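Thread amino acids onto this structure.
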């Protein structure tokens, strides 16, 4: 990329009120640094503590989902481990804040994920609260967290000020790109 491409990208992100945009390795150490930067930026913008806490908790949940479920990995020289890759975007629009993440998933996980998300989207706030309690109880009863149980998705839906949005697009026969947007 040349300087004008970088400048155009910077201007585009500015026009879209993007506070943070990161694409690459998602490791614990990188996320800690990004989270600190996001926290500082939100404090500078004098965002209410309630919105700040909700946005931050959703951001962390989304990033953890990338770390757990991204099928695209790369070797991180710093940690000397294979790490997930993805994209994280945080911004504001019409006095609301949004957190968007994207990552590659296996195509065979696509339908199961869509089913969970569609179920969550069909619920109102009271239904989400009850479903969340049900999932927590199920996890306690089984003494372990169910893989892809959907607890984090329900958590984010409960924190959101409007229904979560998602898109899953096939990349090729074996992979799809999953985008999740949560508005606070």
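Threaded sequence (184 positions):
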């Amino acid at each position: 990329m040349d300087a004008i491409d970088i400048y155009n990208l910077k201007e585009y992100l500015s026009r879209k009120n993007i506070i943070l945009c990161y694409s690459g390795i998602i490791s614990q150490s990188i996320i800690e640094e990004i989270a600190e930067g996001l926290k500082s930026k939100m404090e500078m913008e004098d965002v209410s503590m309630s919105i700040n806490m909700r946005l931050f908790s959703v951001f962390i949940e989304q990033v953890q989902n990338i770390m757990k479920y991204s099928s695209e990995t790369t070797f991180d020289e710093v940690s000397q481990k294979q790490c997930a890759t993805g994209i994280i975007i945080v911004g504001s629009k019409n006095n609301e804040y949004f957190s968007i993440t994207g990552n590659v998933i296996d195509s065979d996980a696509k339908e199961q994920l869509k089913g969970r998300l569609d179920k969550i989207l069909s619920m109102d706030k009271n239904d989400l609260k009850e479903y969340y309690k049900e999932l927590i109880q199920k996890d306690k009863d089984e003494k372990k967290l169910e893989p892809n149980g959907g607890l984090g998705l329900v958590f984010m839906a409960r924190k959101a000020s409007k229904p979560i949005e998602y898109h899953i697009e096939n990349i090729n026969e074996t992979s799809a790109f999953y985008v999740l947007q949560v508005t606070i």
